[in-house]
Structure formats: C-alpha cells, structure tokens
Amino acid sequence: MAERLPDIDGLGTADLKRLLLEALAKIAELTAQNAALRGEIARLKGLKGRPAIKPSQPSGMEEATSPKPSSAPGKRRGGRGRQARVAVEDRVLTVPAPAGSRFKGYEIYVVQDLEIRPRAIRYRRERWLTPDGCTVVAPLPAEITGHFGPELRRFVLAQYHQGQVTVPRLVAQLRGFGLAISKRQVMRLLIAGQERFLGEAREVLRAGLSSAAWITVDDTAARHRARNGFCTQIGNAHFAWFGTTFSKSRRNFLELLRAGHQDYAINPEALAYMREHHLAGPVIARLAGHAEKLFADRRDWQAHLDRLGIATLKGRFDPVSVATEGALWGSVRAHGFLGGTAVVSDDAGQFDFGRHGLCWVHAERLVHRLDTFTERQRAAQQGVRALIWWFYRDLKHYKTNPSPRRRAELRARFERIFTRYTGFATLDRLLARLHAKKPELLLVLDHPQIPLHTNGSENDIRCQVTRRKISGGTRSDSGRDCRDAFLSLAKTCAKLGIAFWDYLGDRLAIPAPREVPYLPGLVRHRCQSA
User: Fold this and answer.
1) What gap in Å lies between CA 529 and CA 526, rounded to an integer?
2) CB–CB of 428/195 below 8 Å?
3) Distance between CA atoms of 93 and 106, rounded to whole angstroms?
4) What value does the CA radius of gyration of the chain take, rounded to a whole number of Å?
C-alpha cells in the first residue's frame, strides 16, 4: 500500500526542512541499494562490475600503526625557516630622513634569486716553436674536458637525472638560454666519459653490501634495446643502487650482488648453498674434490662444468643452475659481501637466500586483497586484519625496546594468529601459507635493527618508474649503465644529506666552498655506526 503524502501547504519552515532531509536520506539509501543490485546482476551475468578505486598504498597498515606527527612548537611549516646554502650578498639601501632623526640600525629583508646565463669563453692559447722544431701550446684549464664547460655539464646531469627532464626538452631549454647545442651533443654529455661516476656507484654498492646490517630489495619493469627487462634496487637507509638487466631470476640477482666482479668460487659457502638447494651429492663431490676452485669469468666456469660432465646432467633441480648459483654465492661471500646482512624482500623467490626477512606490509596485503562473498567471510577477513595490525604495532614497539620475555610472547601470539580456524577456506589456506613463513616474518625478533617492510625500496625505485614513463627505455649499454649509476648516486646523496648539485660540482672540479667526500666511505661509516 502506497504511503500517503503529507499536506505541505500548511507546514512551517522547520517541518519542510525535516521532510527535505528525510527525502534526501531515502534517495541516498535507494541509490546505494540500486548500485549494489547492479553490481550483483553484473556478477551473476559474469560481467565486470565497477572498478574498486583503491588508494595508492593498498594496505594502510603502516599508517594505521604510526602515531600522527605533531609539529614542533615554534617551527614554521613550508620550509620558510631554512637557511640558504649560498653566500649572502649585503646591499645597503638608504632612505632620506628628516633632520634630527636617530639611526636605529637596519631592517633585514632577504631575497633569493637565481642567475642563469650562457657564457662562451674563447681561449687564446699561446703557441711557440722551439729551436729544435717542436711546437709548444698552452694547456687548457684542468676542468675543461671538451667544448662544453663543467657548469653546463653539471646542469645537464642534474636536470636529466634529478629533475627527470627528457632530452628533447633539455635541448629546447638550453637553446632557449642561447646556447648552440644539438641533441647528439647533449647525449654525449650524459653518457661519454662517465667512468668515474660509474666506478663510484659500483663502490657504493660494495660498501653497502660489506658493512650494512640489512638491505631491502625490490624490482620493477624496465626497457632496454626495445626489449622488456627489469631494474633491481638494492639499498637501505644510507645508500641506494640500481641495476637493469633482462632477467629477474635468482642467478641474475646473485650476479648483481657480486657488485661488478665477474668471478665464480667454490668454497664452503658455495657448497652449503648447493646442499640446501638439493644438488645431488655426487655432483657436489665432483666440485668439492677438484683442485680448481676459482674461475675468472662465465666462460671459465662453463668450461669447468663441461670438463666435470655436469653440463649434460638433468634432474628435478637443474644441476647446472644450482651449481652456478652456488658458485655465484661463493663469489659474493669471497668478496666479503652479505656476511651478516639480512635481506628483506616482498617474498619474491629470487631474493630468498641467506638471512632473509619478509615485508609485513606485503604479507598483510594478501589478506587485505582477499575476495569475500558473504558477511561471514568479510567479518573473518576484518578480524584477522585487525589481529595482524595489532601484532604489527607491537613488533614496532619491540624494535625500540627488545627483551627475551617480549620475544617469547610475540612468538606465541604469532602462533595463535596464523594457526586459527576461521571457517573461510581461502583465508585459512592463506594463514597456513603465512605461518610457513614464520622464520622470515619474525626475523626482527632476533635482529631488531632490520625494518618490518620494504617501503624504502619502493620509494627509491619510483624514480626509475618515473624515468621509464617519461623517457621510455635506453638504447645502448653505456646509456643504461649511466642512467642506473646516476640514479644510484642521486638517491645515495639524498640519504646522506648531500645536495646532488654540490656533489656534481665537486666531481667536475667546479670551484665551490664545500667539498663532498667520497660517497663509499660515507656509506661504510654510516652503516657501521648505525
């Protein structure tokens, strides 16, 4: 029976407002019900419903367990209290004052400005002809290495690698300043003669791997030579390093961990790796019993496998792959890398070796993204998520004040959370899978200094993602290596509190009031003192 409409002619303003609000509430309720019915109809028909637009960080676990930052008293927001890093030039402004006035000092007003102007220097180099017939020419200044000066080289490197400016826009910008420069010349400034920077980036990685208590790792898609590849990030709070390859296998990651070394080694660490990964005992005995233990490069290692008859063997666990990975791990350890370093990852298989820890944000995200279809399933999902959030918050507190008693309590709570039965079969299987990862998830209980997540790696690798989106891929191996090296150096400078502009100026021999130390030494010092 239809509801009788009220007579509104005799109603007052308050009653009319009340009716309007009730009508709006009913309209909103009917709209929500209509949207839910359309989604259910689409699901029953096998169609795709409206996409669920989620925030940029699917899991809010880290934000939910972190206290809201409070601004310090007296601190102004927006960076207005920062001091300029350049020398301040004083200019006195006068004003005519009436007779009898008293001078009361100066009122300070600071104005920051930037001066960008092209400059061309023509060096008139003296030439002398010696009595014995030789020609002597006056040398160029030490900082001059071509027809473009060091300030221009610094500007190009900073704009491209830190400012993420594309080459065509950079060329247009420089020409707008009045410089006569081509795209090919800009590419040479970015790629040619960068061996010093490439070497320093490689040494940054070596310093981090040999002295860091922990590292986090991640990878993302990359394009090189018109082929799909992968960029791997390795770093911690004091350094970052990037390497682009065509593979994301465990062998590839172990090759990156050699930090530029090309050798293979059969040592106790290599043999232990082979046993752990189920290489057949007779194969291990052949490798261990042979007198030759060090191999200069891949060719020598492959020839050794051929001589021992291992290259033709087949099995459930590929003998060649496992033996090669073991020899790579032996090389990593022979160079002093990852001695006691924990590797924290998002549970990708290629990162699982050594002292391995897992990211709690990625673990909780599996529960967060689980598809539910009934109210009971949704309630079970939310209940488990609440328990994980609570447990994660207590892990953060444990890191600041670890103790044996709290360690035992947290281990017991982990068992209760991840062995519970919810009646939601998919969720129960997921909890069992996470329970099997207990040593990696609870590595922080024995090593409180390691992070609970890989947010640092994900933040670092965004610069590579941005570069991929705006510039596509690289064409030459030297271009790829330079891009990875300069991104590594820029991120490392940011973590060490060094301006990338100052770093470039110091390395390009531009006179400046501040000297930037060798980055690998700073990384090693920070990691050892952390």
Assistant:
1) 5
2) no
3) 9
4) 32
Amino acid at 512: A
Question: Token pair of 19, please?
Answer: 């009716």
Residue of 225, 220, 216, 156 whose CA lies nearest to 469: 220
pLDDT tens for each residue of 399-434: 999 999 999 999 999 999 999 999 999 999 999 999
**DSSP code for 242:** E
What does the alpha-carbon distance between residue 516 and residue 498 come to, in Å, rounded to a whole number?
8
CA atoms of 354 and 356, how far apart (whole Å) = 6
Inter-residue contact 297 to 263 (CB < 8 Å): yes
Mean pLDDT of 99-107: 91
The full length of the chain comes to 530
Helices 477-496, 195-211: crossing angle, 10 deg rounding: 50
Q: Which helix (H) or strand (E) holds 241?
A: strand 240-245
Q: Which carries the bigger pLDDT value, residue 198 or residue 143?
A: 198
Give the tokens for residue 484. Answer: 């990875």
Dump pLDDT digits (tens) for 293-343. 999 999 999 999 999 999 888 877 889 999 999 999 999 999 999 998 999
pLDDT exceeds cutoff 60 at 10: yes
Cα separation of 365 and 521, whole Å?
38
pLDDT at 72 over 80: no
* Strand duo 214-224 + 342-345: pairing: parallel
Quick one: which of 416, 443, 435 has its CA closest to 367?
435
| Collapsed DSSP state (helix, strand, coil) of residue 206 | helix
Whether 159 contacts 192, CB under 8 Å: no
Burial of 363 (0-12, 13-18, 19+ CB in 10 A): buried
Among 427, 257, 231, residue whose Cα is nearest residue 338:
257
Residues 6 or more apart from 213 whose CB is under 8 A from it?
Answer: 340, 341, 342, 447, 449, 450, 527, 530
